[in-house]
Amino acid sequence: MKQKRNWSVLLGAAFLMATSAVGPGFLTQTTVFTQSLGASFGFVILASIILDIGVQLNVWRVIAVSEKRAQDIANLLLPGLGLLVAVLIVLGGFAFNIGNVGGAGLGFNVLFGISPELGAIITAAVAIGIFLVREAKMAMDRFAQLMGLLMILLIVYVAITSNPPLVGAAVKTFLPDQIDLIAIITLVGGTVGGYITFAGGHRLLDAGVKGEASLQQVNTSAVSGITVASVIRIFLFLAALGVVSKGLVLDESNPPASVFQLAAGTIGYKLFGVVMVAASITSVIGSAYTSVSFIKSFHRSIERNENWFIIGFIVVSTAIFVTIGKPVHLLILAGALNGLILPITLGTILIAAHKTEIIGRYKHPLWLTVFGLLVVLVMAWMGGYTLLKQLPALFG
After folding, report:
1. Measured between alpha carbons, how far is residue 312 from residues 23, 194, 289, 292 in Å?
2. Are 238 and 45 in contact (CB under 8 A)?
3. What is d(CA 366, CA 218) in angstroms, rounded to the nearest whole number?
4. pTM recorded for the entire structure
5. Domain count, the chain
């Protein structure tokens, strides 16, 4: 019975991380990069998967061994740093949750012709319903797994109908015509950036999967999460590649919807609606849960009323979308800050991994430290570059 329960928790954490990553932005990024890079985008996906696994193993292992959430680890290293990290995570989570409820609203619009605002309210109601049940976290795990599997099945179907050039895709994955570093960094930030980095690690901690003895389980869950997200990205890439390789032009206003429609007609367009709703609702849930997990250790009342704070997070995000839409400047700022969150948080984790007062006698693998340091340096450079580029748009 215990082994079965552990597997349920490990898969729940894996799918929570994966479905948090697979939101409206994930679908759009994958489609747009496939259109611009063609089969060579396969190399970008391969490189990002390797980097993603390195990031997740570093973060999840240190959280498990220290038996502390990321903000508490940060505060132990430098008092006040945990609060800064929490503010960055919550700000990014709020901004992207506005985009997530908006994406779900568009999905409902495709399916039923209702307004995106009404679709967003339905999305919020579903997400809130999950946190109202007695075993809310178990319900969250089950919902993430169900939606993740549904997305995989539908995207695989569309990939098959688009008939992509599989041999060409395989060759270019290892021998690309061009290497786009910005695309690699964008995919890494979109898959394990911001709150997503900690979604599964904090979920495992909440479920009692912690301590050095649990590291094998932590590794399995972390790699499984990246695998699920990567499977979805790979088949979406193949679906888009099948469409663009035939010379068909995607609609710039909604590239992923265009892929589904061109590959499978009207049915494909409706399937896009289902995928968009599934991707968006799970991202709403993952963002709200993980963002609140970053503040609940600051006051006992937050921890005691965690589900109500999560519900409040969802309500406020939805209200902002319904009343004023997507605040462009807020989303631009959050996107730029998201590029800086990963190097700050991962850098903190890497330092903590070698502090005996935090991790005890545990010896963090050298290759993971080197790997993580590389990601910190590259993401810090790209995040700073992106933020500087966006400043004129914010204050001009």
Report:
1. 21, 20, 11, 10
2. no
3. 18
4. 0.90
5. 1
